[in-house]
Task: structure prediction
Amino acid sequence: MDEYGPCQGPVNRYEALSGSGELYPRCTRHYGTYVERVQPRIDAIRQQYPDTDTPPSWFDPTYAGERWNEDD
Ligand SMILES: [Zn+2]
Result:
């Protein structure tokens, strides 16, 4: 449970959208809210840096909401 409400659906490990390759356990609902929050930032970075698949070093995954377990 977090500010987006209680967990819903099975928990799976999803690859971080930041391109770090790390996997984070998330339920279906919170993966959805994570994508909604983070994907626009990733898209903005990719538009600014179209030649790279990975975000620049100044991209802070903590800022983007990456945590080991968001349901703590
Ligand atoms: Zn959840």
